[in-house]
Design brief:
The complex is a heterotrimer of chains A (118), B (486) and C (153).
Chain A lengths: L8 H19 L3 H23 L21 H31 L13
Helix pairs in contact in A: 1-2, 2-3
Chain B lengths: L1 H22 L2 E4 L20 E4 L1 H24 L6 H20 L3 H19 L8 H30 L4 H7 L4 H18 L7 H8 L2 H26 L5 H24 L4 H25 L4 H40 L15 H14 L6 H16 L1 H26 L15 H19 L1 H17 L1 H9 L4
Chain C lengths: L3 H23 L8 H19 L1 H7 L2 H21 L35 H33 L1
The chains are: A mainly alpha (118), B mainly alpha (486), C mainly alpha (153).
Chain lengths: 118, 486, 153
């Protein structure tokens, strides 16, 4: 975050991402788009965590060639990294399930490929 | 090999359980120079990954260990003939690891990680039998719900971190201010865990997933959802503890519990697919637990009410978790046995199987009587505790709970008649009893039910009540983190 | 299978991608990066090869079975190191002060110290192997699955 950007802008971006993601998840019938919505949701939450990690005047917590100054605690970065790793695994699993659904039913439309009802 | 390792885990858990009852809470800090060094020198907050085990955690761990042992033994023959056996057991162990992590951890972010591990493994196992068309659909529903729930948990963790720079449950509870943001976080956490629990407004995934998963995996998923129940309790009791809003939260939990109970059972009555029927009952039984705990939550800051009936309600709710894990597990396994031999889950196409599959029939009867709360069985013991205490809190709630119980009995009787009784159908002349390892898997759970039926007082006193005490006693959990080491 | 220009460039670039991935894995403990990030870079190299040469020809030389051996080795390294600290606690960093990666730099800015971090660099290697193998396997299987479907249609 550079100077001149108001502190709230990242949070607005987070809200926008999460809003878009929920809109996609609720409204879209295509399963691939559903997975994309979940991916956007994950990005929104990750951006939220990374934004929290910023402290006014802090530098990144890397000792190699570090400039002098106060370092931020690297916990949010670690959390975000873990969450990205998990999101990758989830996405891979979901996409492979969508592939299976497509193979069995010939459609990625959640209404058409739906087997179970009631 | 898998069975041996799970048996070993069960053994370790029981040793740990005995130790915890004798000595109280245990702390284990990963990577520190000594296990109880929660706060290193020059730090004021706990920094490492900390496992914190009290009676409630170990109670859930006992359930997880027992059910996964039964599931693994059952899988030995149930999954024979599937491709990729080693992957199946790897994922099974991963699911067990996820459940254990969720119940034993003392750290919110760890909870999130293990929640996701359990979800991914569970979804992959649900969709494991790719030769069926519907498995991928059930798995996809499960993973989508889990991902949304887990991201909500992560967002709540972010809110906590923003305010307190902490993610440890005990340390957070220590500094909790009950600001507006904390309330938002509580709502997010509660919605997320309720989603995973299949509590009523968000229960739609549950029958689809439970009915298509292999039977041994279904019971693991049931226990995994109870691990989320544990997380919900941990959040409400330990993280937030006694605050004025807990009455509201308690009433919300009670209302959702009642809805869950009633909607679950009314949906179940109309089902013809035996596993869908059981899945809806599973939703309905979750309602009992929410009811028992919700009453405890609503009276948490009224000590006299807490002592007269609040603790009894919570004992009942917690005792119901282990009972339900056992008998619901047994019922799902018998449904799996029927599917294994007949190739269908449709009740209308079964019939007259009682003579062919004697053991399965006996286990089904034990499970069905127990879930309906018929007196000698353990389901009765925990339901009676809930009825008695809830009646003193609010009589209407107890009446709805009893009606639910009657409907449960009705629908299981219907399922029993259509599957086991009646004329022998010509296409099932060749049906035999299921293989030995499947019987052994069911027998473990049935033995648990019978043991709990014979000694309900002992179990409540030794298992459920310490768990309740651990939940109520927020201070002990906090001082375990903040007071240890230094 | 893409054109000859793409294939030549891909087989040239893959060296740099792999070396960059390995660099990120090896320097994970002292600079930004680590096992997962480096492994992901290596897997992106595999993705480049899949795009350039087609999934079937890659599948001939890069079998899933070999990749799962890679994954298993990575996991064994990781859990083995975790148990290595068992004398004190699970995951205890037992290599601190020892000749291998054991040098502890003074707290504060430094010009980069390779031999620090104890078990962390070795864990990074384990994680890197695991992630590179796992992500490549996922990419390969998905690429194969989609091509099979194209043939069916």
């Amino acid at each position: 975050m550079t100077q001149g950007i108001p502190f709230n802008v990242p949070f607005l971006a987070v809200a926008a991402l999460i809003g878009i993601a929920f809109y996609i998840i609720v409204s879209q019938r295509n399963l691939i788009k559903l997975v994309m919505g979940l991916s956007i949701l994950a990005s929104g939450v990750n951006l939220f965590l990374i934004t929290l990690g910023y402290r006014e005047g802090g530098v990144a917590p890397i000792y190699t060639h570090a400039p002098a100054g106060i370092m931020v605690l690297p916990v949010p970065q670690a959390l975000t990294l873990t969450s990205i790793v998990i999101a990758v695994a989830c996405l891979a699993l979901m996409l492979s399930m969508v592939v299976h659904i497509y193979r069995h039913t010939g459609s990625t439309d959640s209404e058409k490929s739906r087997i179970m009802k009631g | 090999m898998v069975v041996a390792s799970l048996a070993f885990v069960e053994f370790l858990v029981i040793i740990l359980a005995r130790d915890i009852y004798l000595n109280g809470l245990h702390i284990y800090t990963l990577g520190a120079s000594s296990p109880d060094l929660t706060i290193p020198e020059n730090y004021i907050v706990p920094v490492r990954i900390i496992l914190e085990v009290d009676s409630m955690s170990i109670f859930m761990a006992i359930i997880s260990a027992t059910v996964s042992l039964a599931a693994a033994i059952y899988s030995l023959s149930f999954m024979k003939g599937e491709t990729g056996q080693n992957r199946f057991y790897t994922l099974l162990l991963l699911l067990v690891a996820g459940m254990f992590g969720m119940v034993l951890t003392g750290d919110l972010f760890n909870l999130f990680v293990f929640l996701e591990i359990a979800s991914i493994a569970g979804a992959a196992l649900t969709a494991f039998r790719t030769k069926f068309a519907d498995t991928a659909e059930g798995g996809l529903k499960y993973i989508v719900i889990s991902t949304v729930a887990a991201l909500m948990v992560l967002f709540a963790i972010g809110i906590f971190y923003a305010q307190y720079n902490l993610i440890n449950i005990g340390a957070l509870a220590h500094v909790m201010q009950y600001t507006m943001l904390d309330k938002i976080a509580l709502v997010l956490l509660a919605i997320a865990f309720m989603m995973k629990l299949a509590s009523v407004p968000l229960h739609m995934w549950c029958p689809d997933t439970y009915s298509v998963a292999p039977a041994s995996i279904t019971i693991m998923l049931v226990v995994a959802s109870y691990a989320c129940l544990y997380a919900l309790f941990r959040t409400c009791f330990t993280l937030y503890g006694v605050s004025p809003d807990m009455v509201t939260v308690g009433w919300i939990v009670i209302t959702l519990g009642m809805l869950t109970m009633f909607v679950g059972v009314t949906m179940a009555v109309f089902q013809t697919d035996i596993k869908r029927l059981m899945a809806y009952h599973c939703i309905s039984q979750t309602g009992y637990m929410l009811l028992g705990i919700g009453v405890g939550l609503a009276v948490l800051n009224r000590p006299e009410a807490l002592n007269t009936y609040g603790i009894a309600a919570m004992d009942g709710g917690i005792f119901h978790i282990i009972n339900n894990a056992l008998y619901k597990g047994l019922l799902f396994l018998t449904a799996g046995a029927l599917f294994y031999r007949t190739g269908t889950r449709d009740l209308n196409r079964m019939g007259g199987l009682a003579h062919k599959m004697k053991w399965t029939t006996i286990f089904y009867i034990i499970g069905a009587l127990s879930i309906s709360g018929i007196p000698p069985f353990n389901g009765f013991a925990s339901k009676l505790l809930i009825y008695e205490s809830v009646y003193r809190f609010n009589p209407i709630l107890a009446i709805v709970a009893m009606i639910t119980s009657i409907l449960t009995l009705a629908s299981f009787t219907k399922a029993f008649y259509s599957a086991f009784m009646g004329a022998e159908l010509p296409e099932y002349q060749e049906v035999k009893e299921v293989p030995k390892s499947m019987i052994a898997g069911m027998a473990i759970l049935a033995a648990g039910i019978i043991f709990f039926s014979l000694f309900p007082g002992l179990v409540v006193e030794r298992l459920a009540h310490p768990a309740t005490e651990a939940l109520i006693n927020q201070g002990a959990y906090i001082s375990g983190i903040m007071g240890g080491g230094g | 299978m893409m054109s000859k220009i793409v294939r030549t460039m891909a087989s040239f670039l893959i060296l740099f991608v792999l070396i960059y991935g390995l660099y990120i894995i090896m320097h994970g403990h002292s600079t930004p990066g680590g096992g997962f990030q480096g492994g992901a870079v290596v897997a992106s190299g595999v993705a480049l090869l899949i795009v350039a040469f087609g999934s079937h020809s890659i599948h001939r030389s890069l079998l899933e079975r070999r990749l799962s051996i890679l994954i298993s080795i990575g996991l064994l390294i990781f859990i083995g190191l975790a148990f290595g600290g068992m004398a004190k606690t699970f995951f205890y960093n037992f290599l601190v002060g020892s000749p291998i990666f054991g040098h502890i730099p003074p707290s504060g800015p430094n010009p980069g110290e390779m031999s620090s971090g104890g078990v962390i660099p070795i864990m990074d290697i384990g994680v890197g192997l695991n992630v590179a193998g796992g992500l490549s396997a996922i990419l390969l299987v998905m690429a194969l699955a989609t091509t099979v479907m194209e043939v069916e249609e």
